[in-house]
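name: query_chain
kind: protein
chains: 1
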Amino acid sequence: MLPDTGEGTPRTPRSPRSPRAPRAIALLAALLCAGCAGAAGAPGAGGGEPAASPPPAPEPLDRIAAALGCSPEVTVDAQEVREGACAVGAQAFRLATFSTAEGRAAWLSESRQYGGTYLVGERWIITAPSADALTPARSLLGGTLDSAPAHTHTDTHTHGAG
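structure:
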């Protein structure tokens, strides 16, 4: 039975290690960044200038996946971010494209806490288990390699009366 929230609807328990949590955080960050960037040039924002034209479309996931030699399974398809996954043999890849460079930066900032190796383009990112796995894509697409150590949690707190 699900816990009662006291509001007449049961609440679904959530695991703190849900695999969707990083994606949800990244999507939220992308949405927030996109909203902030658009506010400065918006009519009535005090600037008096018309809003800038939207940036060109990001690199398609299919083209990025083709550079890896795979076909993506799209997992997130939103205006701000599009994500997918694919594999080549035992190598698994996550791909993401962004409507803005700011959205990409926010996604990368949030994702780095989980560790990994990233190939970062202007408005796209590929994650892989190693830099070697990204070499073919880098030779075709360009980009910059970035890596972050995996975050490990150790409980150093003591509980009880002191």
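note: Helices lie at 21-40, 61-68, 101-111, 131-141.
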